[in-house]
Structure formats: C-alpha cells, structure tokens
Amino acid sequence: MSTWAKATEFTSGAYKRQERTFRSWIKSDGEFPPEKDRYHLYVSYACPWACRTLTVRKLKGLEEIISVNVVDTFLEKEVGWTLMEKDDGSTPDTVNGFKHLKEIYYKADPNYDQSFTVPVLWDKKKSTIVSNESSEIIRMLNSEFNDFAKNPQLDLYPEALRPKIDEVNAWVYDGINNGVYKCGFAQKQEAFDQAYANLFSSMDRVEDILSKNRYLAGNQFTEADVRLFQTLIRHDLVYHTHFKCNKMRIVDYPNMWEYVKEIYQMPGIKDVVNFDHIKKHYYASHRHINPFGIIPAGPVLHLEVPHKRGQ
C-alpha cells in the first residue's frame, strides 16, 4: 500500500485522517524526562501540523534544546518523505543517518504498518519515537521544557483558558485544519460539498470572533491561534486553488487577514513559514489532483504591511 494511501481512509468518497499511534509524553517524573539535546524533531515546512511544533519551539526559545531535521518538499507515494540536503532548507538526517522518514518509524517499531507522517518527536537516548501527534507535542514544548526555555514565561495553554481553547480547537480542527483536506481529497461531489460548506461556515465563525476579540480565546495569544494560523497562512497560497477551497480568500476577510498579518509579523514566526516548500510540496506531490505538477508563480501576499489588530 502506498504511503499516501496509508495516510488516508475514504468512506463514501469522504476523507478521514488516521489517528496517530505514538502517544507518549515528556514529563519530569516519566519515562521521557525533559533534557537538553535529548529530543529531536523531524518536520516538513510544508506541513501545517509539523509547523505547529516549529512555531512553539521558536516562541518558547527551545532552538538550542531540541534539534530539527527538515524533509524534502516532495512526498513520493511509494517512498514517502526523504531526508537530503538542499539549498531550500531541506536537511539530511543528522541523528540516525537515514534517507527516508519511514526508516525512523521502523527503527522505533519494526512491525509498524501505519502512515509515515511528520512531525516526529524522537528520543536520541532511547532511539525511539516519543510522539507523532502534533497537538500533544506542542503542549509538551509549551510546558515541559521551561527549565531550559529562553521564554519560560510564555504559556500558550494557560489553565484559566483551557476550556475555551479546547472548545475552539475542536471545531477549528474539524471545519478548517482538517476541513481543507476533506475538500482537497474528497472523491465524490457530495463529500466535497459537505466539507466545503463546513469549511466556510467555520471561517465565518472565526471572522465573527475576531471582530470582537483580538485572538480566538480572548485577548491572549494561545495555542488555538498557533494551530489556526498554520492553516490560514496556506489558504491563499495553496488551499484556495489546489484544494478547490475557492469561495473566499483570507485577504477577503477583513478581520482574519489582519489577524494573519499580526501573527506573521510576531518575532520568529516568519522564520518557520517557508512559502517555497509549501507550494512545491502540494502542487508537485499531489499528482492525483495536479497531474503535471505545475507550480504556480503566485500569489503575491502583502504580509509585511502593518496590521490593524491593535485598533
């Protein structure tokens, strides 16, 4: 079975994302205690799930604590993600010396038979995968490495806001984060229409919230904003055209567009946004959608224009 096929499951033409299988936790009194230079991330600049982890790593100031390798832009069906040095930011595997991400999964579990996805949080000491679930990795990075972090005071999952963050994450994930994929990978019109309607009703809901609040959970920037931003920054670039999510662009939403610009302009955020990787991956890898792999030159996004969220 191909890597792409294993990563997806279709029911009545609808896309369903597989559950992740490595779900351990880093904690001081656990099997995987927080330590400097013990853990390593395998990521893709193209993947919004992986870039969540890069964002939190950057915001918390953990670059010298947790090392990173970046896979190539092209995801080949039968081979999966590859690791090689290129001048676009792709890197070789500096920890295990492997050429393919699937080798890392097999080293952790020789009998592994699920999808070979990023991000992967790797334990160098035990030579195994701690987690491949991005939502849990970002919470580990947020709370478990504060003794080493340059910005330990930053809390992206504050206790008082947790119920609100969890509630927002649930419908944003279903309608937007995963919603764009349910549109792009739909195999029947009915499945596409349902996902499309849910996507843009969720977008309208976000726009309404941002017309009243600075951020999704109120006036504090949280993990809910990190998770949504990594989808929104890709929308006009790839999802609008490639995944047929073309009812509205983000620039057409007055509040959402200013919100995206604000987050993009936060210190360090643009360092983990690689537009070249994003476009190359989606347009060249998904040949079932774009058979000739033509990569468009645009669009031009004016993300550096001062935002108006302070108003």
Q: What does this 3D model show about the protein?
A:
With 311 residues, the protein is an alpha+beta fold. It folds into two domains: 3-143, Glutaredoxin, CATH 3.40.30; 159-266, Glutathione S-transferase Yfyf (Class Pi), Chain A, domain 2 (Up-down Bundle). The chain contains ten helices and six strands; from the N terminus they run αβββαβαββααααααα. The strands form two sheets. A four-stranded mixed β-sheet has the order 4-3-5-6, sandwiched between helices. β1 and β2 (14-17) form a beta hairpin. α5 (162-177) runs antiparallel to α7, α5 (162-177) runs parallel beside α8 (223-242) and α7 (189-210) crosses α9. Residues 1-7 have low confidence and may be disordered.
